[in-house]
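# nightly structure sweep
# worker-07 picked up a monomer target from the shared queue
# config: single-sequence mode, recycle default, output format = structure tokens
# input follows
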Amino acid sequence: MKKVILLVGAVMLTFAVSQAQTVQEQKLKSEIKSLDKKDKNEKQEKKVLRKELHKLKSQEVSEQSKSQFIKDFKGITNAKWKKSDSFDQASFMKKGYAMAAFYDQDSKLIGTTTIKKYSDLPVNAQNKINEKYKEYSKGSVIYYDDNEENVTNMLFYGKPFDKDNYFLEILKNGKKSVLQITTEGEVIYFESMK
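# output follows
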């Protein structure tokens, strides 16, 4: 019952936000139409308003991505959507795991991420990490599953890549770093975080 109430609340919030954006779009379009094309000041204002309208539209998640998600993840109804600079992202739960699916500008699945545990890493990788990074505390583990049918690269921690990998955050003396672990257990120092 609690889940149903939360889901209804989320749907209502999403609808309210989309309605607010639609009203904002209509208002900007109306303002653009009302400006005199011959007046230089109004011409400049029109240009600014068009930029605002474009920015507003680029913040919306593509309906095609949402439709594709329904096809890709049959039965998942609890997805929360957000738009990033490069991707449409759906966050959801599947079989008890927190996941996210990423779609490119053509609404094609790039890949998914899943929150995992340290014990989910390949055993040989765990042994290497325990030996080489024994003074580090282990943080969150994320598994990235690439859609091999899509050539678009995923960005993770600001770097592009296109293979199935685990990512482990490690911490030492207040400095956070990220290790990339292949599915075969190879451990690669990926990124130092600020």
